[in-house]
Records
---
Amino acid sequence: MGYPHAPHRREALVLSKHFGEKDAVTLAGWKKRGGYAALEKALGMPPADIVNVVKDSGLRGRGGAGFPTGLKWSFMKIGDGKPHYLCCNADESEPGTFKDREIMRWTPHALIEGCAIGSYAIGAETCYIYIRGEFTEPIARVEAALKECYDAGILGKNAMGTGKTVNVWVHRGAGAYICGEETALMNSLEGKRGNPRIKPPFPAVSGVFAQPTTINNVETLAAVPAILNNGAAWYKQWMRADNPKSTGTKLYSVCGNIQKPGNYEVPMGFPFKEFLYDLCGGPPPGRKFKAIIPGGISVPIQTVDEAEASLMDYEGFVAEGTMLGSGGVICIDDSQNLVKQIARAARFFAHESCAQCTQCREGTAWTTKILERIVAGEGTPEDLDTLLSIADNMTGKTICVLSDSCATPVVSGLKKFRADFEALIKSKRTILVPAVA
């Protein structure tokens, strides 16, 4: 999807309202759109009041876990005498997900403003925006915007003339998927190998440099200025009447076998069927959807019936056997073989495993070997039970959830599309699986 483009009448634009507006990337352009009014307002408030506004709004982490943002901020104990840190997780690398990089490309000041407000709210004088190193254009945009902020006195030791210190810095990651996991991100930020840490202690107790730390996703922090400007009740206008747990709007990245791929922003609780067919145009002409993955490759695969019955919020997707995840919608039509797609996913996770945990190191590798044997026409019926057995030993038994992420498409694929596996094994046919990245 190119920018600017006409939004669909059913979209609700908060985060993507200014995508494609070239002058919105500059400080002057952002101020013309009301930028930094929320930060000025926040710096005049007690931090606890900011936390309460975010709590009341119902904003939840958009990186995948969906943890309430205000509650996470409240874990930081103001006045404990320790340096606090805020980390913005901009290491977006979940296959099928490409919305955070668009926020950084088009509205870098929205992210910086959200980072500054979040830092002040949790008692942090330093925020690191950890950006995936390959994101050269987003990095350039954010760094240019930060320079404008420091030159204008918005950030620094006397932020906006208030005498308060708010610093925001960019840290470039080396491009490892595992560094999107919060504790691996912290290790990487400290200059160590990006291996996940065992929790507890949780970051709010011992995070970056062993100090209290909060980690939020790009989309989460970018939503904060609008909430401060308009209030919690305004943000809660977007939710299902029967589900107050999921509020606001959500950016979805859509790719695969679909007529109108791109990023879309809709209210929480939006009907997934309408989203797929009306907003995104449905499958290519002459084809039907075969499967949908709604939250990035690490969440359970849905059948078409499950997808069409889903409501697009945290609880709505769980009710239909999957998760909201990162909001990366991957569409698969009836021309595709699910085994091929799952084998490709497994190869990705095997490649990206940090190899710290045995279950992940060995499990992702063996899962990949078996799936590649099947797509090479050399599989056996016994392989399917072996895959499920390996998946069981990979789930919930490692330091982070990368191992689970590899097992999830295998288990959900075998449960819902076992016929694809059995037909391929029986036919001894070979199908080509494209290389990872």
Note: The mean pLDDT is 95.
---
Amino acid sequence: MSFYELVQKYREFPVEEFWGKVTDSQVEKIIAQDRLNTLDFLALLSEKAQNYLEPMAQKAHRLTVQNFGKVIFLYTPMYLSNYCANQCAYCGFSALNRMPRKKLSLSQVEEEARLIAATGLRHILILTGESRSKAPISYLKECVKILKKYFSSISIEIYPLETEEYRQLVDAGVDGLTIYQETYDELIYDRVHLKGPKKNYRFRLDAPERGARAGMRSVNIGALLGLGDWRKDAFFTGLHAHYLQNKYLDVEISVSLPRLRSYPGTIKEFKPYCQVNDKELVQFMLALRLFLPRCGITISTREAPDFRDNIIGLGVTKMSAGSVTAVGGRINRGKENNIPQFDILDERSVSEIREMILSKGYQPVFKDWHPIEVEVS
């Protein structure tokens, strides 16, 4: 069975009609339950449930501390290449965008790695535009070989791969996979992905499962909130995480909650389907925590400092810090043509994020895992 079959099943479900019938007593009963089913989760994403954010927050706090402790795991992204074969209507890396294209040399990878490691961070997420020819598996393996000298955990956010290709990267030292479905609405997905291999909805949808089968220690999924109806994308994201958690018990499953942000470049500004406000994003996070108490929740530097500060304790378990979204953004800081994929809102340094987390009574964690090298005789 593939997750696609569940998508098909719920695509026919009368979601608006269901949400229209959600009652106050139903929401109160769901919040009081020890375990939630998928329809309970769907009810907590309704407009009616927006009146119950405070009791949801109290329970989300308790469940998060119970399952993760008072800690926030930190990581940072490192962009290796911005070449892309896709034409996505909402992305600054789109092949339609006339911008300087770059790819780090191996010596530049090492230079950037040294700068990141000097901040104390030991978990890194490496990213590329979606171009197999410009950032092939062989190149990524060479980069990972260098990065292993500086980081204990290396995750990837690249184009979707076949299972055997993911296995090659796991063998090279990659332990985590991040891949966003962007939107679970297949019609909108087709509309915003104009050309390129990314138009293949099903191949991308099944990528997290191929990564899990290949031996990834952690898999992180998400929808780009604003591309489609955020409540429906939130529901399918939670459903997807639930499916992966139940099927791959040895894999850490996490969910990111990214909102669409503006991007520099020459392509026409994209108009989102909807704007997701802070209250709605918090509702998504709280509903997800109540539905999946052991699921990691990531909030990136796409969000503003005040918002990130205030959601600590409500369910988030992982944050990016000291982020730049340009290729070689740290070694080329201040130089021309250092164009990011999208604008970030929280530009604080790693040390500033660390101090903020401590001020909230939480422990910032720079490293929580290390691979064991096994010698083969």
Note: Residues 7 and 243 are 11 Å apart (CA to CA).
